[in-house]
Amino acid sequence: MKLNLPKKYLSFSQLTLWSKDREAYRKRYYEGIPMPDTEYTLFGREVHTAIDTDPKFKDIRLDTAEKKIAVDIDGVPVLGYIDTFDQHTCDFGEYKSGIRKKDGKPRWTQSLVQKHEQLPFYSLLRQEKYCINSNST
Q1: Engineered SS bond to 96: which of 15, 108, 135, 137, CB 3.0-4.6 Å?
Q2: Is 0.85 topped by the overall pTM?
């Protein structure tokens, strides 16, 4: 099957945007119109930089920041960048920033993180890339 992808791969952010707003997807990925930064994306970048560089966060960092994982799933190239990754154990983590919404409520709660589809998506990529050959049947 030949796909007409705007990029040469699919990513979690592409799939999420497509499912939420197909017109925004077309503008971003086919027309090249960048999405504007929000206070949440700007704050998230600051948090990532601090976690990746500040020694006081060494306990939550694994050995590789922004680990690129590219796999082919049923002929479709899929790409992910995992926030923090351990090359030896294949453990990984994603950072979710704590900026509060305008109404004062937290942006992320433990329940929201557990329901978020990004972690299973990255787990699938990790499994496909690093564990597929270790399963013998």
Answers
A1: 108
A2: no
Specify if 67 maps to a domain. Answer: yes
The dihedral built from the CA positions of residue 80, 78, 133 and 123, taken in this order, carries a sign that is positive
CA dist., res. 44 & res. 54, Å (int): 15
Full domain range(s) for residue 87: 37-132
116 C-beta neighbours (distance < 10 Å), count: 14
> Could you tell me the two tokens for 135?
């399963």
| Residue 8 counted as domain residue | no
Could you tell me the pLDDT band of residue 6, with boundaries at 50, 70 and 90?
Answer: confident
Report the number of distinct structural domains present in the chain: 1
